[in-house]
Amino acid sequence: MLVSCLQPYLRPMKIAVIGAGAAGFFSAISAKENHPDSSVVIFEKSQKVLAKVKVSGGGRCNVTNGTASISDLAKGYPRGEKQLKKAFSVFNTAHTRKWFELRGVPLYTQDDNRVFPKSNDSQSIIDCLMKESKRLGIDIQLGTGIRSANPTQESLKLTFLDGSTTVFNKVIIASGGSPNRSSFDWLEGLGHKIEEPVPSLFTFNMPTESIKELMGVVVENTLVSIQGTKLKSSGPLLITHWGMSGPAILKLSAFGARALHGLNYEFRVSVNWAGEQNYDAVMNTLTEIAASNPNKLSSNVKPFGIPERMWLFLLERSDISSTKKWSELGKKGLNKLVNTLTNDEYDVRGKTTFKEEFVTCGGVSLESINFNTMESRVCKNLYFAGEVIDIDGITGGYNFQAAWTTGFIAGKLG
Questions:
Q1: Cβ-based neighbour number of residue 203 at 10 Å
Q2: Where are the strands (E) in 110-265, listed by range?
Q3: What is the bridge-based pairing of β-strands 114-117 and 14-18?
Q4: Angle, nearest 10°, between helix axes 123-136 and 22-34?
Q5: Calpha distance 119→106 (Å, rounded)
């Protein structure tokens, strides 16, 4: 009797995974490992697999983040924090490390908590996923796009772009994020709520600001905010030839993705170069420097770990000559310098996204998915994984971790 009751769950299935990115491969591998007698096929509309993995981290692949606390890890997701917090109890950063290392890919954690393969080559991750797929007998079909999916009793009929159709018992959608709303029309047609896709993780363009001349300079400890909003961020800030980037800016763009889209990417950003919010504390530091180094040039003593080129720029911005001695600044000069250090303002006029690594917020609404299984709440036997869901993380391996986690759970087909 027990065997006959289990029979429907043990029978071989035909499983389709749509999308050959990180979430797609991890979903397929998980599905095959959980249902070894079933056939698993990955469909990819392009001619490339794991394209984002290839270019991630400058070609090194930022596999995950080193944060061990599930609660702290979940805070790295502007959208999906609550849902992922639960999902991370099933598969988190520790599981990711173990998974890859058991398959011959040792990893290491940088000081900034980003995790990379020890080879410093994204090909190590690609080779690992490809090797696992081959070992498990997962079929990969490139140049095969999906037009629609239609429920048929206990299965789903996929219609391909060439008009052909195939019926599958289970389908996992891991097609990634898209800036085009129309990309989600076929999923909306099945009854899913779609959140409008807008860019996330972008840099700030400052065409009218002279700070661009400092391209390449990094200030390690900054506080950044958007005027007129409650958006704040902290961390390293990089000056680029188009404006500002670095973790502090990218984090701000992620949490402010929808608000900044609403402002048409035109706003003023305030930068605290001292990394210290308290005005008096900054003033006390400068006063002590002036008292201890009265005869030294203002340009020769650089507080708060600020790089030389940036310090000279900030002195000029405060109308202080670099040849002036600290004893000559006076109260007026110190006040100007503190104001510049704690509340330096710049005009942002546009954004720049990383075309190969673009991240969007938006996609299939969180309320349309059961995060215990990643199954659709409105279409039986349909599952989701990765950026096709309205989940996105800050920079630092968070988006890949979401892909591994949702893919692992989706592949259980529970």
A1: 21
A2: 114-117, 139-142, 146-152, 155-160, 165-168, 170-173, 194-200, 202-205, 218-226, 232-239, 243-245
A3: unpaired
A4: 30
A5: 8
Give the model confidence (pLDDT) of 185-223 as tens digits. Answer: 999 999 999 999 999 999 999 999 999 999 999 999 999
Strand order in the sheet with 351-353: 344-349, 266-272, 218-226, 232-239, 243-245, 202-205, 351-353
Nearest to 274 by CA among 249, 245, 305: 305
pLDDT of 1 reads 36
Tens-digit pLDDT profile for residues 141-168: 999 999 999 998 889 999 999 999 999 9
For the chain, the structural domain boundaries read: 14-198+356-410, 202-353
Task: Locate the DSSP E strands across 24-179.
Answer: 39-44, 64-65, 107-109, 114-117, 139-142, 146-152, 155-160, 165-168, 170-173
| pTM of the predicted model as reported, rounded to 2 decimal places | 0.90
Residue bearing tokens 């210290």: 276
Instruction: Judge whether 93 and 68 are in contact, CB under 8 Å.
Output: yes
- In angstroms, the CA 23 to CA 159 distance is 22
Helix (H/G/I), strand (E/B), else coil: 111: coil
14-198+356-410 CATH pick, 3.50.50.60, 3.20.20.80, 3.40.1030.10, 3.40.50.300: 3.50.50.60
Given the structure tokens 């289990």, which residue do they identify? Answer: 6
Sheet order of strands, 107-109 included: 64-65, 114-117, 107-109
- Helix (H) or strand (E) holding 82, with range, is helix 81-87
**Distance between CA atoms of residues 235 and 119, nearest Å:** 27
